[in-house]
Amino acid sequence: MMHEANVITIGAGGASYPAAFLLAKAGYKVIMIDDKGVMSGNCLYEGCIPSKTMREIAQLIVRKKRFEEFGVLGEVKVDYKRIVSHKDKVQEMRYKQHEEELKETNGMVEIVKGIGEIVDPTTVLAKTENGNIEFKAKNGIIIGTGTVAVKPEIEGKEYCITSDDIYKLHPTVQDLPDSFVIIGGGYIALETASFFQAFGSKVTVLVRGHRFLRTMDEEFVSKLVSLLDPEIKVEYNSPVKRIEKVSNKFKVIYSGQGTEKEIEADLVLCATGRKPVPPKGIEKVGIPINEKGYIIVDNSMQTNVPNIYATGDVNGLKPLFHAAVRMSIAAARNILAGNKKVDYVYLDSIPTTVFSIPAGSIVGITKDDASKLGIPVLEASYQLNKDSRAQAFGELGGEIKLFFDKRNMKLIGGWIVGIDAGNVINTIALGIQMGITARELTDFAGQHPMVEEELGAMARQITF
């Protein structure tokens, strides 16, 4: 039997459910097919929510240790099981919250637990525990199937955990390792290293290349890495050759400066990236994917099949939850317009934060980007050792940079490393989204004593 709905989503995470809610308000019936059978996606189950919950605890520990010099705080003792328990409670709290949000749609949005497969441009097959169900989409299909963690093709990779084993609901890792080797040079490696060093593990990071975060602005990354806990041991240009089990520990053998080295640890994490998981059947309808496996879309989130959209991590444009939400909304608006392109996602105004300790956030076009694009730039910088909030917390090494197009004085990019980075970047991103100029930013009276107030001061460097 064929079931009908206005829109079918494959996936029920941030790339899908914001669209579903918007469409439901417009009177559209939406079916979300998801292998977990709940509204969440990877962000809540094993990604940003659990990892950033743990990050907040790690940040508190770091700050508590810093203030011990005043003699008013006792010794820091970490109960890792209780940290995991708190993480789980936050995830469960948000799952309940999503359940309530789903109920509020009064049946206009439904979730089917299963794996979605595209049959033709208007039909999706849901493979469920109780058999297969076909759904016909009258108005559109949204693919929001995300990515999964991958391990490198090295001998002994089965001895590695992935970030899922740390951050998923009721994770495999329940005890704090005394020694912890992290393989990878991306944001997951950097963040996890910061957390576990704060918790009390002895952390070593093996980076295959010569730097962390190789796709990000080099000056930004250099500043961020310079402020990490110096107790984190980092080995660059150190590709891993194999991993061995030795008694109750693991031995990691890697290349370093032309010689073979080894290190033992209680736990080994492969933080070596994620790969997209497009649904089966896209080849039947002629939707192309690129060399890395991502579904190709334009900035309306539309594929080459006008009624089929790919949103969130599966398109590889900006693998972030908040980006997925924005893409999801764009897809919904374009479906409501009869699959005409009326909404486009402005990727340059979507910020990225590396939630290490300290954090670093970046958005838009940086100085290096502008040089490649032939855009003349005016730059403003601010050292956070002059900021009152940074001084109060004793977090003095950070920096903010803003970049303006010299031709029209519009804000086009910026970054911040240090205190409140994840908050301040939102103000910068909003300025980029709204096309604010340096002159307009000079009139911004940011709350004192908060870091945002420095943005106006930075603009005055340019205009006064």
Automatic annotation (TrEMBL):
<dbReference type="InterPro" id="IPR001100">
    <property type="entry name" value="Pyr_nuc-diS_OxRdtase"/>
</dbReference>
<dbReference type="GO" id="GO:0006103">
    <property type="term" value="P:2-oxoglutarate metabolic process"/>
</dbReference>
<keyword id="KW-0520">NAD</keyword>
<dbReference type="GO" id="GO:0004148">
    <property type="term" value="F:dihydrolipoyl dehydrogenase (NADH) activity"/>
</dbReference>
<feature type="domain" description="Pyridine nucleotide-disulphide oxidoreductase dimerisation">
    <location>
        <begin position="350"/>
        <end position="457"/>
    </location>
</feature>
<dbReference type="InterPro" id="IPR016156">
    <property type="entry name" value="FAD/NAD-linked_Rdtase_dimer_sf"/>
</dbReference>
<protein>
    <submittedName>
        <fullName>Dihydrolipoyl dehydrogenase</fullName>
    </submittedName>
</protein>
<dbReference type="InterPro" id="IPR004099">
    <property type="entry name" value="Pyr_nucl-diS_OxRdtase_dimer"/>
</dbReference>
<dbReference type="Pfam" id="PF02852">
    <property type="entry name" value="Pyr_redox_dim"/>
</dbReference>
<dbReference type="Pfam" id="PF07992">
    <property type="entry name" value="Pyr_redox_2"/>
</dbReference>
<dbReference type="InterPro" id="IPR050151">
    <property type="entry name" value="Class-I_Pyr_Nuc-Dis_Oxidored"/>
</dbReference>
<keyword id="KW-0274">FAD</keyword>
<dbReference type="InterPro" id="IPR023753">
    <property type="entry name" value="FAD/NAD-binding_dom"/>
</dbReference>
<feature type="domain" description="FAD/NAD(P)-binding">
    <location>
        <begin position="6"/>
        <end position="327"/>
    </location>
</feature>
<dbReference type="InterPro" id="IPR036188">
    <property type="entry name" value="FAD/NAD-bd_sf"/>
</dbReference>
<keyword id="KW-0285">Flavoprotein</keyword>
<comment type="similarity">
    <text>Belongs to the class-I pyridine nucleotide-disulfide oxidoreductase family.</text>
</comment>
<dbReference type="GO" id="GO:0050660">
    <property type="term" value="F:flavin adenine dinucleotide binding"/>
</dbReference>
